[in-house]
Amino acid sequence: MHILVVEDEVRLARQIASALTEAGHDPIAVHDGEATLRAALETPFDLIVLDLGLPRIDGFEVLRRLRAQHVTSRVLILTARGQVADRVTGLHLGADDYLAKPFAMQELVARVRALGRRYPEEPAVLLRVGDLTLELVDHTVCRGTGQIELSARELMLLKVLMRE
What we know:
By secondary structure, the protein is of the alpha/beta class. It folds into two domains: 2-118, Response regulator (Rossmann fold, 3-Layer(aba) Sandwich), CATH 3.40.50.2300; 126-163, no CATH class. The chain contains six helices and nine strands, in the order βαβαβαβαβαββββα. It has helices at residues 10-22, 33-42, 59-68, 84-92, 105-118, 152-163, and strands at residues 2-6, 26-30, 47-50, 74-79, 97-100, 126-129, 132-135, 140-143, 146-148. The longest helix is centred in the C-terminal third of the chain and has 14 residues, at 105-118. It starts with a strand and ends with a helix.
């Protein structure tokens, strides 16, 4: 799975990314809320492992904004906030799972695997890179709010480039 690891502690983010790589996943790590929003809006991720205690924009607000932008990536909250109220809030905001720190790396990897099984990958119907979108069903290309007309060859090339 293509996974966005969001953790402000750089050392922990590296450990998580390493464990996920060893388990056969493709993780990318970022360390604050703004970078999370940019990455998740530009690239489709299968899963976002999201810490709540982030600089600039906290994890709950990041999750709110992602769901408001219709980002459908699965979200596993990973945080030191283990109180019931925080877990309930995270799940109400759209998280799929919640793991409190400290945690065993084996448990994190097992939860990631379980989330992958629970939600089989659906074929992509929309590719997005920055403000450029390509609807794969009707082959509509838009940049910002404007539609772009492309030939069949241009459309095929754009599809290949956007998937890379």
